[in-house]
Design brief:
Keywords: Membrane, Transferase, Transmembrane, Transmembrane helix. It comes from Shimwellia blattae (strain ATCC 29907 / DSM 4481 / JCM 1650 / NBRC 105725 / CDC 9005-74). One of its GO terms (molecular function) is acetyl-CoA carboxylase activity. The structure is a single chain. By secondary structure, this protein is α/β, with parallel strands linked by helices. It has a domain of 190 residues: 2-enoyl-CoA Hydratase, Chain A, domain 1 (Alpha-Beta Complex), CATH 3.90.226.10. Helix content is 38%, strand content 13%. It is globular and about 50 Å long. It starts with 11 loop residues before the first helix and ends in a 5-residue tail after the last helix.
Length: 277
């Protein structure tokens, strides 16, 4: 029997509760508030009362915190008008708390395919608000992103992950701008076979992302392991230099990357180590 139950197997609400101190969990705009997407029903899609977004206030190690968890089982964790507004507003309020002398940190559980296609521009606008809110908040308190599995983190929300102060992943996690099926559709199966699971994880899986320095902690999928990594990163506080501040280095190296050769784990890790010619 496992001593550390799986974090991956938890639903969004369970993840948020597990990360906060015992007895401190308080959900904002929970399902009983019945704030649903107005766009799914007319398209024949059954909406969910929380729109797949859980926002919980409480404490982590006694410090004021907000945990925002995306439900990957609802519409693939996609971001629409309501779910995106819930996340953006929670982050904006956390930043405002900091400006008012209440040091509030944030943890984001990211299981999302990005924008919800049924809500298109509304979802894109919400994701842009989320990006701005993360950049605002991380000046005052750390924002820790957790990508555990099974959906992964793709699309505009992968940019949100990159903007976080710190990132935690499991080996089951995937992190990338475009999802495998999108790449296959646009570039062809010879370039990217979305059914080849070992290949997909060798490109965008948690382990290669950690080896490449794009995330800060690689852990097993146990609840305790995830919480321990989260606590360690929160204790580091605000970063002196954000990963996104290094964009000139990334742009310069990307301009020299030879796309005529098929990328693999070795080439990816060599590239991010500055060794790829």
């Amino acid at each position: 029997m496992r001593n550390d139950p799986s974090f991956i197997e938890l639903r969004a609400r369970q993840r948020a509760r597990a990360l906060l101190d015992d007895g401190s969990y308080r959900e904002l705009l929970d399902p009983f508030d019945e704030i649903i997407s107005p766009w799914l029903g007319p398209q024949g899609i059954v909406p969910q009362a929380d729109d797949g977004m859980v926002v919980a206030k409480g404490t982590i190690n006694g410090k004021p915190s907000v945990v925002i968890a995306i439900e990957g089982a609802f519409q693939g964790g996609s971001m629409g008008e309501v779910s995106g507004a819930k996340m953006a507003a929670a982050l904006e309020l956390a930043a405002e708390d900091n400006r008012n002398g209440i040091p509030t940190q944030a943890v984001l559980c990211l299981e999302t395919g990005g924008v919800r296609l049924q809500e298109a521009n509304l979802g894109l606008a919400a994701i842009a608000d989320i990006h701005a809110a993360i950049v605002d908040l991380r000046r005052y308190a750390p924002v820790v992103g957790i990508v555990a599995g099974t959906v992964g983190c793709f699309g505009g929300m992968s940019i949100a992950a990159a903007l976080c102060s710190y990132l935690v992943v499991t080996r089951e996690a995937r992190l990338g701008l475009n999802g495998p099926q999108v790449i296959e559709q646009e570039a062809g199966i010879e370039e990217y076979d979305s059914r080849d699971r070992p290949f997909i994880w060798s490109m965008t899986g948690g382990e290669v992302r950690y080896q490449s320095g794009l995330v800060d902690a690689l852990v097993g999928d146990g609840i305790h392991a995830v919480k321990q990594a989260m606590n360690t990163l929160l204790d580091k506080g605000v970063r002196r230099e954000e990963r996104t501040d290094k964009y000139p280095w990334f742009l310069e190296h990307l301009s020299r990357f030879d796309t005529r050769q098929q990328a693999d784990t070795a080439r990816i890790t060599a590239f991010f180590a500055g060794e790829e010619k």
